[in-house]
Amino acid sequence: VPELPEVEEVRRSLEPHIVGKRVTAVRVDRADFVVGGPLDSIIGRRFETTHRHGKKLFCILDDGQTILIHLGMSGRIDVVPREAEILSHTHVILTLDSGQQVRQRDPRRFGGMWHYPSFAAATAAEITDKLGPDALQITAADFDVWIGQRGHLKPRLLGQRDVAGLGNIYVDESLWMAHLHPLQIVWRIRPAEKKALVKAIHEVLRRSIGMGGTTLRDYRNVSDQPGAFVRELRVYGRGGKPCKRCGTTLRSATIGGRTTVHCPVCQRRH
Ligand SMILES: [Zn+2]
Fold this sequence. Notes:
The chain is an alpha+beta fold. It has 5 helices and 11 strands; from the N terminus they run αβββββββββααααββ. The strands form 3 sheets. A 5-stranded mixed sheet has the order 2-9-5-4-3. α4 (168-177) crosses α5.
């Protein structure tokens, strides 16, 4: 499942192909895949910039029309020459005046495309109060919302309301790096621990972005390249193996329906 680093890698690898390029044709194979479609109004417009918040990727055209791309579970954005064979599960094709096409395919269709008349309309609809600040932008003060709250740390981080963009992989990695237990009650987290958590989140995300993200199975960037961060994972997928810090056997448990791996010695609850 793409998390923040993978969406950021898609954004970075997509941007040079689309910015300044004009849309010359649009093909939508599944009408229900494009919300607010049918996208005819973007024909003739140029892409001006891109923006990411959490796992949401916005592509903004020169008249403000905005397309939100959600990659879902196994969604892919491909940039290919117009002549390239159309692979199955390709639902949207945008032809550009460069001769290239941006294609979104999604075998499991948890993703999609949303069309908005303006960037303001897009952010108003998408960056609601259910979505916290972007994980790369957070500060320790953003976690002051935990004061007096009884929730557990990992479910709170996965919930997107406190911080946007983190999923199972990067939460487990960040908690291990910050020495925090996944089931730590949030109101008891000390100010120094909030700082350590922010530092860990930023470090894990930045290192993953630098390596093109994490590919477990499906994820590729727009040039069909997988991410290499999987080699760097310290806890995710390592239940039963020794902690890379203290050698203790890592424990695997199900928390909030998600497999969670932590070190019982390095990450203690208090
Ligand atoms: Zn340990």
